[in-house]
Write a structure and sequence with these properties.
TET_plant, elongated, 2 domains, 269 residues, transmembrane, Protein TORNADO 2-like, 11 helices, Tetraspanin/Peripherin, mainly alpha, two-stranded antiparallel sheet, transmembrane helix
């Protein structure tokens, strides 16, 4: 039984370690400028990772000091957490399935349209109240200012692979036909009725295209890319936790069977 408890403790220690990349994924998301402005995914991931860490620690303590009550709590709580983590992985995958950039002639960067993304993501940015807060946050970052430092000549900028957020927020949509001066300063043509976003563009550096639907779409494209990367980490951690949970369950079941057999044998000696 002591050997079995040590095995279960070692297995639970692995579960404890698997919570670290989950917490790390949440922290990584929080450090991204766009996610810091939206604040949708990072806290659920961080909190879930911390709870998994605490539950795994409970299982480790229960196995190491042979406290059956803590082990039972671990088995029930970890099962619930695995289901929650699996649901989160599926949710992130489902809301990031849609939404990709569109190519434009003589441009290396892509253009993004808000309607291409999932309805759930669209609702996060369509509300004027929500977007005003996000817009203020985005305009306070150096995301667009960095373009002026990196690109001087028009062709260098047109051949650049800038981020979706920079494409949507820092310049007018390509179909507006604006004339390039620098990445964040453009001269509008006499008639610019290609889209509503064309009239929303401003050369004021705190305004730019932060009020445009293209900026909302660029933000969602950025979120999609970052969330997909984080979701891959969560999926790997989920697979590891499921495997560890099954090993702990089987080890505990075998330990109980050995204990019952030992008691039964002792009863007939």
């Amino acid at each position: 039984m002591a050997l079995s408890n040590n095995v279960i403790a070692a297995i639970n220690f692995i579960a404890l370690l698997l919570s670290i990349p989950i917490i790390g994924a949440g922290i990584w998301i929080a450090t991204q400028a766009d996610n810091a402005c939206v604040q949708l995914l990072q806290w659920p991931v961080i909190v879930l990772g911390i709870v998994i860490f605490l539950v795994a620690l409970t299982g480790f303590i229960g196995a190491f000091w042979r406290i059956s009550g803590l082990l039972m709590f671990y088995l029930i709580a970890m099962l619930v957490l695995i289901i929650l983590l699996g649901s989160l992985v599926l949710f992130v995958f489902s809301v990031t399935m849609r939404g990709s950039g569109h190519t434009e002639p003589s441009r290396a960067y892509l253009e993004y349209h808000l309607d291409d993304f999932s309805l759930w993501l669209q609702r996060r940015v369509r509300s004027s109240h929500k977007w005003e807060r996000i817009r203020t946050c985005l305009s306070s970052t150096t995301t667009c200012a960095e373009l002026n430092q990196n690109y001087r000549l028009p062709q260098d900028f047109f051949n650049a692979h800038i981020s979706p957020l920079q494409s949507g927020c820092c310049k007018p949509p390509t179909d507006c036909g604006f004339t390039y001066v620098n990445p964040t300063y453009w001269i509008s043509p006499i008639s610019n009725g290609a889209s509503v976003d064309c009239s929303k563009w401003s050369n004021e550096q705190t305004e730019l295209c932060y009020g445009c639907d293209s900026c909302k779409a660029g933000l969602l494209a950025n979120l999609k890319e970052e969330w997909r990367n984080a979701d891959l980490i969560l999926l790997i951690a989920l697979i590891g936790l499921v495997f560890v949970y099954l090993m702990a369950f089987l080890a505990l079941k075998n330990a109980k069977s050995e204990n019952l057999f030992r008691r039964h044998k002792q009863g007939y000696v």
